[in-house]
Amino acid sequence: MGGNAAEFVVTAGPTREYLDPVRFLSNPSTGRMGFAVAQAAAKRGCRVTLVAGPVSLPTPAGVKRVDVTSAREMEKRAVEAVSAAKGKCVFVATAAVADWRPARCAAAKLKKGASRSMTLRLVRNPDILRSVSRKRARGAFRARLRLVGFAAETGDPSKEAMRKLREKGLDFIVANDVSAPGCGFAVPTNRAVFFMRDGSRVELPMMSKLELARRIVSKALEEDRR
Ligand code: PMT
Fold first, then answer.
1. Pocket, ligand 1, Cβ cutoff 6 A
2. What pLDDT score does 112 carry?
């Protein structure tokens, strides 16, 4: 890594929120988008920590991988990685973090018994990106930190992406319409719009996730030079 290269901390994949030892809440994220960002950043000579939920992808060359299962673990390990960074650091949150988890995880497999229905009580998970952003605002990190979020939307992402950008205090957000063919979860391609803090936007055509990842890394490093 060159002396001036930024460090990247990337979250990727889904999280799993167990209700008993064999059942969990999750989503279809495969980690492809996040692993591509990690790969592209490493290729640019950056030190990269990839905090990955349960996925079955090989670790990109030159990347330090930290495997996690739940949102709370992902938050802990992501904050640790950002806390360890010095100089310039870019946090890219590509993970599809479960917003809710079962209020309790049973120690043994839940039995069906004779009941016809079951009520599952859920509690909120931490918002990892928001908590990193709040820590940055409190001056908790040594590194000069840039925050890049994703917005997974169905339909026109503009309004929601701008809201998330503002509310989570991001430097920019990558919005993707996960209901469009060839976009979002579990496909090798994606189409995205970058929404910047100054209100500008960059609309990109459909491309491979690796090419999109290269554009994200370039944008983050360009922002870093400002
Ligand atoms: O993994 P793939 O199969 O390649 O799929 C890629 C993807 C669809 C997962 C990816 O392109 C994507 O859209 N990632 C964001 C998924 C998401 O949870 O988006 P969101 O709009 O709900 O969340 C907004 C941002 O906050 C995201 O950066 C998310 O990582 C972050 N977040 C959300 C909830 C939470 N509890 N903690 C978070 O950090």
1. 11, 13, 29-33, 71, 93-97, 99, 125, 127-129, 149-152, 164, 176, 178, 184-186
2. 86
